[in-house]
What we know:
This protein is an alpha/beta fold. It has helices at residues 10-19, 22-29, 33-47, 63-84, 103-106, 110-120, 173-179, 219-227, 237-246, 275-290; strands spanning 52-54, 59-61, 95-101, 124-130, 144-149, 157-171, 194-196, 214-216, 233-236, 250-252, 258-268. Strands 3, 4, 5, 6, 9, 10 and 11 form a seven-stranded mixed sheet that branches. Strands 1-2 form a two-stranded antiparallel ribbon. A two-stranded parallel ribbon has the order 7-8. A hairpin with a 4-residue loop joins β1 and β2. α1 (10-19) crosses α2 (22-29), α1 (10-19) crosses α3 (33-47) and α1 packs across α4. It is rod-shaped and about 100 Å long. The termini are far apart. The model has no long low-confidence stretch (mean pLDDT 86).
Amino acid sequence: MSTPPDLNLLPVFVAVAETGSMSAAARRLGLPKSSVSRGVAALEESLGVQLFHRTTRQVALTTAGTAFHDKVRPLVAALRDITAGLPEQEDEPSGALRLTAPVDMGLTFLAPLAATFSARYPAVQLDIRPTNQTVDLVGEGFDAALRVSVRLSDSTLVARRLSALESALYAAPTYLARRGTPRSAAEVGAHDWIIHRRVQQLPAPLVAPTRPRLVTDDLLFAHRAVCEGLGLAMLPTFLARQDVTAGRLVRVLPGWSHKVGHLFFVHPRTEHVPRKVAAFRDCVIAYLAANPLVTGGE
Length: 298
């Protein structure tokens, strides 16, 4: 009774049938000639039929071999086409790349970064979810994330630190014209403040206000409120930079800043990092090298 054939030997059989030579098939497959000969013999033994007539100069299909080749060749060709078309088998990154990132980054540097990446890798379809929630990358099928954290302890993820992050003190020109510009950390306590709810106290040496003008848990709303002249606020420097350049905001106490952690590129731990993930990671690194998030006083 014949044993089930080793399906890995079918491409070997097809190569020998198409080239008419064990040596030529070995060159096509990048295998030793002895491995090809043993593979054909093993396939014949498992099928219980002779597939080739062998001479010292060539091999030729038997009647059984011809019938087998007619059935197997389209299957091997189709399998070759399928595997060659997989995104991670191609030379260039391709396929869908699902990412998450904080909302404020999605509205600032992530959009031009995505444009740079897409121009370089047009075969990659970006699927980006701006969210301030910590997404389960593996459970929800995401390839990577940009995350702000001072500590990442999840052993199922790989984290690459990209940049330090800092906050500074900002106000609108209209507010400063109305209330005056504080010249020292001690003076800021007498001003109107917009406070993020998670901030329990201002970092030293700032003096906390007696009563904030506005408390919110949305950083983008706080940013908008500062631009409207509601008061002073601590904002990430990368979020406020364009407003300072455009004259919508002024950096108060320009020599002072507060480190608030780091930006990380995070992806699930895997033996082989997908090309599309590695390409986006490298694009982020290059983009932030040319457009640093922390640049000192402005």
